[in-house]
Amino acid sequence: MSFFLLGFALGLQIKAQERYHVHFSDRGTNWDFSYDPDSIINFDFDNNGRILQGHTNGGITLPFDVSLINKVSFDEDTDVETKNGYRVFAIYINTLDGAPVNSKEEYVDCFISIDAKGEFSNYSAQGKIRGRGNSSFKWYDKKPYRIKLDDKHKILGLDKAKKWVLLANYRDVTDLMNTFVFEMAEWMGMAYTNHTRYAEVFLNGDYIGLYQITEQIEQGSNRVNISKDKGLLLTLDQDDGPELSPDANDNFYTAVYRMPMAVKYPDEEDLNDERLDSIKEVFATLERAIKSKDYETASSLMDMESFIRYLIIQEFVYNVELSAPRSIYLYKDGDGKFFFGPVWDWDAAYDFSWSDMYTGHTFFHNYRETVMGSNPLKQNGNYKLSGFFTDLFACRPFVKRYKEIWNTYSDSIVSRNWAQMEKYLQYMNEGPLERDLQRFPLSGFKPATETAKMKEWLDNRRDFMDRLINNIPEPEEVTPIEDEKVVGTLTYNVELSMSNGYHQDVQVNVDFQEFCKLLGISENDYNENNIIDIVPINSDGTVGNNTAAGTYGAWFSSQGNTTIWGSDSHVFIEISGDLFNWSCGCHPDICAGNDEHTVMMQYQYQTGNTLKKVNVVVNFTIADDGGWWWPWW
Hints:
Layout: H1 2-9, E1 18-26, E2 29-35, E3 40-45, E4 51-56, E5 61-65, E6 69-76, E7 88-95, E8 108-115, E9 123-131, H2 135-139, E10 145-155, E11 158-167, H3 177-187, E12 197-203, E13 206-215, E14 231-236, E15 251-253, E16 260-265, H4 273-291, H5 295-301, H6 304-316, E17 328-333, E18 338-340, H7 396-409, H8 415-428, H9 432-439, H10 447-470, E19 483-497, E20 508-509, H11 512-519, E21 531-537, E22 552-556, E23 562-563, E24 571-575, E25 581-586, E26 596-607, E27 610-623
Parallel strand pairs: 7-12, 19-27
Antiparallel strand pairs: 1-2, 1-6, 3-4, 4-5, 7-8, 8-9, 9-10, 10-11, 11-13, 12-13, 14-16, 14-17, 15-16, 17-18, 20-25, 21-26, 22-23, 22-24, 24-25, 26-27
Helix pairs in contact: 3-8, 4-5, 6-7
């Protein structure tokens, strides 16, 4: 140790390819900090002589506990890369002054070192780190992070970039859920699919577990390769949309389906209202084609192959985030088509148990659950989706191609991609999974057990999906919608009970006979299949979102606008099964006696090439019958 420090004091000559290594022991294994000598200014000990301190040219101190150090050395870095990306590597991150990383917005300066285990070139340099994610950063002890290098660089054999993601996968005991989908999507030909590297991570000397390293989804020659001038990278995401991110300047509701959309490229500082409106209109052109069931026009605006593959992947792993929606990326280059992808965020898939969402790790219960259902056009699965994802199932060419693509991949969709998982598991089972579990104990859960469950679930899922997809009804040729008009309004007055809250004794009973009269059809001519949608309408006449639990319906605010359950959710309508008898209710903690609320729903019914709209206005009055109460006993 002292010889090494003396060598530095005497100006020891170091070859450019040599690196400084501190070898130490922790958690029953040997670790190797590897640093480029050019980044180290000097070394010293702390006042107690217990910590060997390396001082970087960025002002960051790298502390090494002397009691753990096995040796300090210079070793020559190999120029030969064996390029085994299935290994588990090591990443060491030290922040300036040991600052904690507790923000998703503010980066902290840091020094990053990567031990590539001889498979790739080691890496060490200045950078920055911050938190990332939504629920995963907010709820869980094991945090995900984003790191940003000072300069673009290859990481563990992955193409050059500045921004990288460290996924914690805390909810996923197997650590394989994202990786399986990434492998599957790339194999199925989805462009710009993320790659996986695994590493055990130390943050300021603290072992923080096993992480998945992958690319940040962004515009770039080595990422989503769209042009700087005319490229678009968008995401349909509730968290980034106008309701949950109202202060952002890069989001909007889409014009036709009113989905929450955020612009990821161009960057927010390069956007203005005019640019946002143009993006909204370009996307609305695609929406109108889908809404009209115009397969030919939709195909000219959107790459159907990527869209179909995207939906198959979503349904295959039962990703319920499609219904929110969340993390649904798509991109467009210049005057080209919209493409779906890259795929992202899969720890809510695989039949996750939402009953213990804040602390849970339970997956793989029922392989028969579906998001879209056996008839996606009718959305007879477990979730209500935007018709943007399902309306094309009214088009025979779309359903036919959907089945063809599934049958192209179905035989090997598990076997091929699980073989990839086994290559990762070979190294993860050599200690990393065990050490991760020691750092973050999960009572009742073991990686080996959950991995076996995952494989069994996927095998059963493949067989189930094979039957489901090949039996999706093939529709008659659809008549495109060429005209839309409101044909009339029905009005109903309904008194809700304050004390009954969510569970009322009354319904909204829509007069079927009057409904048919407004449409100009006889009751015998009515065909439920012609109901394209039943949508909530905001006070300004725009279409709102389905935010209730039924197939159709919504929560409404005090102003009669659609909202989510929360601080301004007053009354709701839910429509399931019987489309003319609606459940309804009020929020018992928000509504007050004698409150009055007027809301509107709209039937959209296609006759020929015309979409006829029937508005249904409901005037709710809240009866002042005492509200919720508890007996004193």
